[in-house]
Amino acid sequence: MIESLLPFYQYFKAVHIVFVISWMAGLFYILSLFIYHTEANDKPEPEKSILQKQFVKMEATLWKIIATPAMIISVLAGVFMLTLNPDLLQANWMWVKLGFVVGLLIYHFICQNIVKQLKNDHYKLTSFQLRLWRELATIFMIAIVFVVILKSAINWIYGLIGIMGVAMVIMIAVKLYKNYRKKRGE
């Protein structure tokens, strides 16, 4: 990287971090809205209709004003960082990170499809399935952060075991939470 470009790189890096945080917050929150929106089906009328109408509005606003713009700015800032420092593409860890980012982008667009489905009253996933789906974003986030911080493609055996271990803990926690809610009559 040319030293004169270092300040620009640092600005893009700061923008990238801020908007990745915003993007992740949007993804986590949209899934919570999906869960509550789906669970509103179990409410009696008129509560059900009122809640579902409100959730459609909240989901659209969150998606159009926070999650998608944050995703776009995150990706653009990342592209500018790679443009200013193309040597990063020589590092194995960067390709691992980019692989996880592609997975997160696919996740984002699947969520966008769920926004459209719920708007049209198509409930393909249960609230439990949506809870599990929400945790996939957590797994992507953890994987990306560890790869970037450690600057290593991580020994794949340990990395894979670690990510699978985190996934198992999250799934068990979701299942325990489901049982807890069931016992409380929710």
Automatic annotation (TrEMBL):
Gene Ontology cellular component terms for the protein in this record: plasma membrane
Reactions that this protein is recorded to catalyse: protoporphyrinogen IX + 3 A = protoporphyrin IX + 3 AH2
Signal sequence interval, chain numbering: none
InterPro entries associated with the record: HemJ-like
Pfam families xref list: UPF0093 (PF03653)
Keyword terms of this UniProt record: Cell membrane, Heme, Iron, Membrane, Metal-binding, Oxidoreductase, Transmembrane, Transmembrane helix
Co-factor requirement: heme b
Record pathway: Porphyrin-containing compound metabolism; protoporphyrin-IX biosynthesis; protoporphyrin-IX from protoporphyrinogen-IX: step 1/1
Topological category with respect to the lipid bilayer: Multi-pass membrane protein
Stretches that traverse the bilayer: 14-36, 62-82, 94-111, 132-150, 156-177
Binding site for heme: H16, K97
GO MF entries: metal ion binding; protoporphyrinogen oxidase activity
Subcellular location: Cell membrane
Comment on bound cofactor: Binds 1 heme b (iron(II)-protoporphyrin IX) group per subunit.
Gene Ontology biological process: protoporphyrinogen IX biosynthetic process
Location, primary (coarse class): membrane
Listed EC numbers: 1.3.99.-
Family: Belongs to the HemJ family.
Quaternary structure and partners: Homodimer.
Job of this protein: Catalyzes the oxidation of protoporphyrinogen IX to protoporphyrin IX.
Listed name of the protein: Protoporphyrinogen IX oxidase
